[in-house]
Structures are given as C-alpha cells and as structure tokens.
Amino acid sequence: MSKVDVLVRGGEVVSSAGVQRLDIAIDGGRIVALGQDIGAEARETVDAAGCLVLPGVVDAHTHPVYADDIERTSAAGAAAGVTTLLAYVGAFPSWGFEKAAVHEVVSRVIEDWQGRPVGDFGLHVAFDSVDDVAAEVPRLTELGVSSYKFFLAYRKRGMMVDDRALLAGMTAIAQAGGIVAVHAENGDGIDHLESQYWDRPDLPDSAFLACRGHLLEAEAILRVIALAQTTGVALYIPHVAAGSGMEVVELARRTSGVPVWIETCPHYLVLTNDEVLQHGALGKIAPPLRHDSDRESLWDAVAAGGVQVVGTDHAGRTRAMKAEGVNILQAPFGAEGIEHLLPLVYGLGVRTGRLGIERMVQVLSENPADIFGLSPRKGRIAVGADADLVLLDPGGTTRCAAEDHLGASDYCLYEGIELPGAVRRTIRRGVTIAVDGALVPGVSGGEYLARSGFHVRPIPRIDEVCDDLREIEVVP
Questions:
Q1: Where in the numbering of this chain does the Amidohydrolase-related domain appear (predicted)?
Q2: CB proximity list for 282: less than 8 A, separation 6 or greater
C-alpha cells in the first residue's frame, strides 16, 4: 500500500458485530484499509494500544442555541467522542431564529454554520401550526433535509400543533419520503394543570412534575403512532422518559405498519425526579425526569431493542437563565448533555453489564446514522466510510464536573459522578479534533451533511422494526 495520511495501530475496533484488534489506514479523510499489522507508510501514526476504537458518536438530538452556539456545542461533543451532530432548527423565535419562510431560515443556517464547528452536522427542521408544511418540504428536501419535527406541547412558546395540522404535515412528509419526529406530551392537559399555578411565586418545584404526569406522555405516544399509521409516514419519537411510554410503544408496534423508532436520553437513564426536588429549575426538562422504575425500564429497552437511539437533547443553559420567571413553571427547559453521552452510556451501561459494547455502538452510532440517512458515510468503521473514530481507554476514569465543560453551562446535572473509561482521542475525517478532553487549538472545518429521504434510499431494518413503507396500505 502506498503512503497514507494516518495509521491508527493496535486498537480493539468495535462494531455491532463484535470486537477485533485491527489497524486502520486513513487517507483523504476516509478509511482505506482495515487489517492486522497494516504495513503502509503513514504521515501520522496513532498508537491505539490498550484502547477501544469506536465509530464516532452521532448525537441525533441537539439544540445549539440558547447559551451555546454550533461551535461550542460541537466542541463540547468532540471532547467526549461526538463527531457528528444533528441539530433542530426552525422559524422559531424561542430558539433564536427569525419568523420567516422556513426554507429561507434553514438556507441561512447552513450557510452560516458551514465550516465553523469541529464536527460535521445535519439538520432536523421543526414546524409550528402556521408554517406551510406542504410548500416547505419540497424546498427543504432540495437543501438536504429529510427529517422534521412537530410539538404536541409548548403552546405558550408558539410551537404546539393540533392533530389536524400534524396529520397534514405527516401526509406531506410521507410523500417526500421523510421522517416525522414528534414531541409526545399532551399539551392541552399540561396547560390545563399549569394554568392553576402559573403566576404563584411560592409554588413548590414539585408542581412541575405534577403537571406533566406519565399518562400525558403515554397518551401522546399512542396518538402519534396511530396518526403515523394513518398517513404512512416513518415515525421517530425523541426523548421518551416514561416506562409506561415504552409499554405503549410495544403495544402499538404489534399492529403498526410504519417504522416507529424510539430515542431516549442519558438523563432519563441516569437521573430521577429527585433532581427537580433538590435543584429546582436546573433539573427542568421535558418530558420530565421520572422515577427509578422508569429508569430501569428504559435501560432494559435500550438493551433489548425497544429503544433504537440514545441522543442528548443537548440545550446549553446557565444558572442565570434557569433562574428566569417567578417559579419553576416559568423557568426555561433543557440541560446540557453532549459531553457526557458516551462516558455515561459506557460507564453506567457497558461497565455495569446493562448492555454490551456492541449494543452501545448501535444506539450511539450505527442506528442514528442508518435512520437519518448518514450511512454508509457515518456511523461505522468500514472501508470507504469517513474516518470518524473515538479512542476510549477502558482503564481511564472520567469525572463529571461543570468546571470541565467546554459548553456554556455553568452547572452539571451529573456533578461528581466518576465513571470508568476515558476518551483519549476524537478523530473527525482523519483529523484529530480533541485529545484527553481538550480541543485541539485552531481546529474547525465541520461540514453540513445533506441527506436523502426514503424515496431514494431503502428504509433501514433496525431491531426488527418495520423496514419497508411500500408494503403499507393506507385506507382513506
């Protein structure tokens, strides 16, 4: 073999198929060879002995707005092995975007973000009840967008849609071969409960939890699956928090003829509603943190195939931002998480025996890449794929602490947790972008990833979830 740019030697390469000691030859940002004792001459040699070599993490759920921007969000992720992120954007003033034609907003975002982050990025586009979805989707498809989001909550923020608008949007997106993601909580029920307490300055933090109960999530999950079946659209339900929500998913999947992919987040796998009771708005996330039994149910679902993706829902906030409003109901939602994703799932999942490392690679890299049209370029260590790699030292230790954040959040929901394993190096398209939790100075160059819908690519078969929309017969 002729001279290559980079040779990663001696690591244990991990895929869903198993673990094997292999060298990796990289040239022009792509993997050009895999094998034992590759003899190529390299401009740079990386010693991976003693490390697990993982495909770069694909964080399928981020919000690089609020206190963070795309550069800072990507940097925070890179420190812990995230080489690709998918960000939610839309014509939402609450997210810092102007209220204009959605395709115009998205076009400007692509132009503005291109080349700025250290990792590569793609976009999910969110719609509200006044956006002309049928007119926007063809334009957005031309921009490389194939996944779209609707909210069944957040009326006060101008984001909530009703079932009629959701059905119309699902229909347009199904025709374009796209994926619909839905924030599944019953917004009318939540608003009814919150209206009784909205302006009370003495409101206990527990009221937030009482206004967003399990059934309000489980009901919405069942409803959106039924509506997806009605329209024949592929469905992705992000940030599932309730164990009862997973029971509903399994019930609906028995009769659903459309793919229903489920995402949960590390905070639902690790934390409980005690964070809200002890720390108030710092732990305010929607759906809310729930109970130990929910946490256990979600770990089981990740391991057994009920959950296909673990993404962060990263939304960097500061303590000052979280203190806004007269009570917890008026405080902003969200928490950081992108720089803890891999350490938490490895340390509290793989090393505790909750799931195998092969399954971890599936839910953090392979599945999100397959679902959202990033394969075969992303998500796997394979010849021809982008050389996105993470060197994870199983003998190292990671301590979660706000003082170490590369993102803007000055608090950490996982403060003080010590985890087995440490990310030693993150490589994006053959370029080292982070070493031992620190960003390489001067690195940038993240690319926008245009993606195609199911009208031009096959629907992936993942965890036995339905894989062919062409077999679905929708009866008017």
A1: 212-431
A2: 275, 319, 322, 335, 411, 413
Those residues whose C-beta lies under 8 Å from the C-beta of residue 463, and which sit 6 or more positions away, are 305, 306, 308, 367
Phi and psi at residue 271, in whole multiples of 5°? Answer: -105, 165
Q: Letter for the amino acid at 187?
A: G
290's torsion region: left (phi>0), alpha (psi -120 to 50) or beta? beta
String of DSSP letters for 354-388: SS-HHHHHIIIIIHHHHHTT-TTTSSS--TTSB--
CB atoms within 10 A of CB 388: 32
The number of helices, as runs of H, and strands, as runs of E, in the chain is 15, 17
Residues 6+ apart with CB under 8 A from 404: 437
Is the pLDDT confidence value at 474 over 70?
A: no
The mean per-residue pLDDT over the stretch 84-112 comes to 96
**Residue type at position 346:** Y
Residue 270, H or E segment? helix 266-270
Residue 289 lies in a domain: yes
Mark out the alpha helices in 30-162 (DSSP H runs).
Answer: 70-78, 102-113, 133-142
Average pLDDT over residues 405-412: 96
Query: How far is Cα 132 from Cα 467, in angstroms, rounded to an integer?
Result: 29
Question: By C-alpha distance, which of 224, 259, 258, 216 is closest to 241?
Answer: 216
> What are the structure tokens assigned to 168, written together?
């119309």
CATH code assigned at 219: 3.20.20.140
Q: Is residue 429 part of a domain?
A: no
Tell me the residue range of the domain where 244 lies: 54-383+449-462
* Alpha carbon distances (Å) from 88 to 95, 139, 313, 315: 9, 17, 9, 11
Give a yes or no: residue 406 inside a domain. no
For residue 439, what are the CA distances in angstroms to 78, 227, 316, 380? 7, 44, 18, 23
Q: Which of 123, 90, 124, 120 is nearest to 105 (CA)?
A: 90
**Per-residue pLDDT tens over the stretch 348-380:** 999 999 999 999 999 999 999 999 999 999 999
Residue 3, in any domain of the structure? no
Token pair, residue 271, equals 């934390």
Put simply, whether the predicted model's pTM sits higher than 0.85 gets the answer yes
How does pLDDT run across 255-278, given as a tens digit for each residue?
A: 888 999 999 999 999 999 999 999
* CA–CA–CA angle 127, 310, 111 (5° rounding): 45
Whether residue 203 contacts residue 197, with contact meaning beta carbons closer than 8 Å, is answered with yes
Q: What local confidence, expressed as pLDDT, does residue 471 receive?
A: 43
Decide if 335 contacts 315 (C-beta within 8 A).
yes
* Contact criterion met (CB below 8 Å) for 114 and 444: no
Task: State both tokens at 291.
Answer: 């109970």
- Tokens 């022009």 sit on residue: 28
Pairing label, strands 57-62, 52-55: unpaired
Average pLDDT of span 458-471? 73
Residue 352 is encoded by which pair of tokens?
A: 């505790």
